[in-house]
Design goal:
By secondary structure, the protein is α+β, with helices and mostly antiparallel strands. The protein has two helices and eight strands.
Length: 133
């Protein structure tokens, strides 16, 4: 049987505005050598996916205020079967935040995916993420 979860796809962080997002990009890309792979939105609604070498760091500029130390909005697990993941957590009684959905992230380049979200046992958001490239 194929392993359902294939690894962490991305970890999301939020910055308080476009200027802070630019500081984060400077830190992760210019200082640490990571490469941006996708960008979408504009101004405070800009988002950038940065390749860490073994996963993606998704940086948003739309935090809308200061976040508590260590706050990570969600963890995204790569899977080949988003629907099965959601059914397993639904059957176990966990809250489904977003049902399985096909979408294309309007980034450069466009990024077709299937994804869904649930609430984890510690209150965290867990995303099940399947790239469709």
């Amino acid at each position: 049987m194929e392993q359902l979860i294939q690894g962490v796809h991305h970890i999301a962080i939020k910055c308080n505005g476009y200027e802070k997002l630019q500081q984060a990009l400077h830190f992760y890309c210019d200082l640490l050598g990571m490469k941006p792979v996708r960008t979408w939105g504009e101004g405070n609604n800009t988002a950038v996916m940065v390749d860490t070498g073994c996963g993606i760091l998704e940086i948003f500029g739309n935090a809308g205020g200061d976040l508590p130390l260590g706050m990570i909005p969600h963890i995204a697990f790569r899977t080949g079967d988003v629907d099965r993941c959601i059914q397993i957590v639904r059957d176990a009684g966990y809250e489904i935040i977003k049902e399985p959905t096909e979408m294309t992230i309007p980034s450069q380049p466009p990024f077709p995916v299937r994804l869904a979200f649930c609430r984890g046992p510690a209150g965290e958001e867990v995303e099940f993420f399947c790239p469709r490239e």
